[in-house]
């Protein structure tokens, strides 16, 4: 039996694929798990030869993320290296449509390119479909995030992907927040999907990694060649850790999203919170869209306080929640986003982004409640 079989001939569910995809062949004494192949050089005459070209542990991770997103996966050393691979597909003076509230590192990388190579950035409100569609005219690349980091705006992905492709642009979607269990942008019309695997895929705050997935083999080959020549070779240990993390992604996300669903309305009802952004709240502007295109409302929410100092005091007052950047891990984390100089000035000073982990909901609430009540 070479690999995991479909017992009844029907396609395996995504949850099952998370467990079985990218495993070694089922031959006697073969390991059940893909081993960590810590090697820079391979015997000549094969497909790999050198550690910047490939690695068996990379291939296992790529098979797994490819199975979850429905395409060919490629691993990169970080989410931003994956963004770089996507940008390498368009000319240096390309016109690029991006969310005004995209991840700050993505905007930073594109901003540097705009200064150096004449790349043009068109920043849009992803929730305003007419605005995004208009910006697609003459664009080379449409790089959308949904939900956005940290504003939690939801784009109409089928409409935006169709408009980008109709305009002749390459359409890429950063699926870091939703994860492959939340939505599959390739099925919604995107050409490329990317992940900061640092976040939910790896999920344990111990590895920095990125990935892209696409269905077109030519795009895959071009990004693979970019990886080889730009030297953006992923660490083998990080790749192995992310693959291990992905085996439980659906379970972690289920609990983390259930926690977010419990906490969001309680936060919204607290007088210290001016506004809670979470697509799962009944009155959230992204609710209907998220319900139409996502399988879960996810595990990230943002809370707005009156001002920056109040938000900082709140973050400092938590005892269980960790005041730290990043998201998508087993432990709940929170941070005031405007503490970063690169964060968009249209993100409120008092906005705190929360990433719910897999702890028990009442423990998480008790900590938030005492931190809220400590605010003057
Ligand atoms: C963190 C993040 C990135 C960047 O990923 P790194 O792994 O930190 O390079 C890109 N997009 C989103 C939405 C992120 O949250």
UniProtKB/TrEMBL annotation:
Which top-level group of life is the source organism from?
Answer: Bacteria
GO molecular function terms listed in the Swiss-Prot or TrEMBL record: transferase activity
InterPro entries recorded for this chain? Cys/Met-Metab_PyrdxlP-dep_enz, Cys_met_metab_PP, PyrdxlP-dep_Trfase, PyrdxlP-dep_Trfase_major, PyrdxlP-dep_Trfase_small
Q: Which Pfam families match?
A: Cys_Met_Meta_PP
* Record keywords, A-Z: Pyridoxal phosphate, Transferase
Gene3D superfamilies, A to Z: Aspartate Aminotransferase, domain 1, Type I PLP-dependent aspartate aminotransferase-like (Major domain)
The cofactors named for this UniProt entry are: pyridoxal 5'-phosphate
Q: Which residues form the signal peptide?
A: none
Which family would the database say this protein is a member of? Belongs to the trans-sulfuration enzymes family.
Record protein name field:
PLP-dependent transferase
């Amino acid at each position: 039996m070479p690999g995991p079989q479909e017992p009844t001939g029907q396609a395996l569910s995504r949850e099952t694929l998370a467990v079985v995809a990218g495993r070694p062949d089922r031959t006697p004494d073969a390991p059940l798990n893909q081993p960590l192949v810590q090697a820079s050089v391979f015997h000549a005459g094969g497909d790999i030869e050198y550690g910047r070209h490939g690695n068996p542990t990379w291939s296992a991770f790529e098979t797994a993320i490819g199975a979850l997103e429905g395409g060919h996966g490629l691993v990169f050393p970080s989410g931003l290296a994956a963004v770089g691979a996507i940008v390498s597909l368009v000319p240096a003076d390309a016109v690029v449509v991006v969310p005004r509230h995209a991840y700050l590192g993505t905007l930073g990388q594109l901003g540097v390119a705009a200064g150096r190579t004449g790349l043009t950035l068109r920043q849009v409100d992803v929730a305003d479909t007419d605005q995004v569609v208009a910006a697609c005219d003459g664009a080379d690349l449409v790089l959308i995030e949904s939900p956005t980091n940290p504003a939690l705006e939801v784009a109409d992905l089928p409409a935006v992907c169709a408009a980008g492709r109709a305009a002749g642009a390459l359409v890429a979607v950063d699926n870091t927040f939703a994860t492959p269990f939340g939505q599959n942008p390739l099925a919604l019309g995107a050409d490329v999907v990317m992940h900061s695997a640092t976040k939910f895929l790896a999920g344990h705050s111990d590895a920095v990694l990125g990935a892209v997935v696409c269905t077109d083999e030519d795009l895959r080959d071009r990004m693979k060649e970019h990886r080889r020549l730009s030297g953006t070779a992923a660490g083998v240990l990080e790749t192995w850790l992310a693959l291990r993390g992905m085996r439980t992604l659906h379970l972690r996300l289920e609990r983390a999203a259930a926690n977010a669903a419990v906490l969001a309305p309680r936060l919204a009802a607290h007088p210290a919170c001016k506004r809670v952004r979470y697509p799962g709240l009944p009155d959230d502007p992204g609710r209907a869209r998220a319900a139409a295109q996502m399988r879960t409302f996810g595990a990230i929410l943002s809370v707005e306080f009156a001002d920056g100092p109040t938000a900082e005091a709140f973050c400092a007052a938590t005892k269980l929640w960790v005041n730290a950047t990043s998201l998508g891990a087993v432990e709940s984390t929170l941070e005031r986003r405007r503490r970063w100089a690169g964060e968009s000035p249209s993100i409120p000073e008092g906005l705190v982004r929360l990433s719910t982990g897999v702890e028990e909901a009442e423990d998480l609430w008790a900590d938030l409640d005492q931190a809220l009540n400590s605010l003057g």
